[in-house]
Write a structure and sequence with these properties.
heterodimer, A: 111 residues, mainly beta, 6-stranded mixed sheet, globular, B: 113 residues, 7-stranded mixed sheet, 4-stranded antiparallel sheet, 11 strands
């Protein structure tokens, strides 16, 4: 069973501050790393899919990096806004086609 | 474009009853999967399929069966429901290539009493 770990489990951030959180995963048999944003009462929606070591992706104020050799990815949010409050999930896709999710980081933006 | 459609949205079952959760996608995705979401546990993979006629077990397959007779449909069967199967179930689909995102259905909230 693959073990995808996310930290912290929960995070409170003041509006306007920047923040980041971590996803760690076993690096053997790696195929892709996904990040999803999950708002309460909705379905997860993809933010990024990264496949190459050193990949960096950006969408507005949110960006992500990937290190497949050491098995981690960071998600960064710059200038947090209330609408950023959500659970952020990372998921590992291995070459055996399983997509395994971490337990998520629950982000609360404080006004 | 409907995307991934799950039915029903809500269901209450009695212990021992059977039922099928439906999932259909209209994006011609080869890859489809079922997850369950429980408090503090994130999304756990139940079963997945990389194409019609092919299914495989995920992290928590016990008590569930699946089949994939067409590319579009991937039903999840509970043969004899147990209270431990009370959960929110999500179906997801994607292209088989690893660099593509998964699209999720709206979820089915199942309660087993």
């Amino acid at each position: 069973i693959l073990n995808v770990e996310q930290s912290p489990q929960s995070l409170h951030v003041q509006e306007g501050d920047s923040t980041n959180f971590t996803c760690s995963f076993p690096s053997s048999n790696f195929y892709a790393l996904h990040w999803y944003r999950w708002e309460t009462a909705k379905s997860p929606e993809a933010l990024f899919v990264m496949t190459l070591n050193g990949d960096e992706k950006k969408k507005g104020r949110i960006s992500a990096t990937l290190n497949t050799k050491e098995g981690y990815s960071y998600l960064y949010i710059k200038g947090s806004q209330p609408e950023d409050s959500a659970t952020y999930l990372c998921a590992l896709r291995n070459r055996d086609d399983k997509i395994i999710f971490g337990k998520g980081t629950r982000l609360h933006i404080l006004p | 474009n409907a995307g991934v459609t799950q039915t029903p949205k809500f269901q209450v079952l009695k212990t021992g009853q059977s039922m099928t959760l439906q999932c259909a996608q209209d994006m011609n995705h080869e890859y489809m999967s079922w997850y369950r979401q429980d408090p503090g546990m994130g999304l756990r993979l139940i079963h997945y399929s990389v194409g019609a006629g092919i299914t495989d077990q995920g992290e928590v397959p016990n008590g569930y069966n699946v089949s994939r007779s067409t590319t579009e449909d991937f039903p999840l069967r509970l043969l004899s429901a147990a209270p431990s199967q009370t959960s929110v179930y999500f179906c997801a689909s994607s292209y088989r290539e690893g660099n593509t995102e998964a699209f999720f259905g709206q979820g089915t909230r199942l309660t087993v009493v």
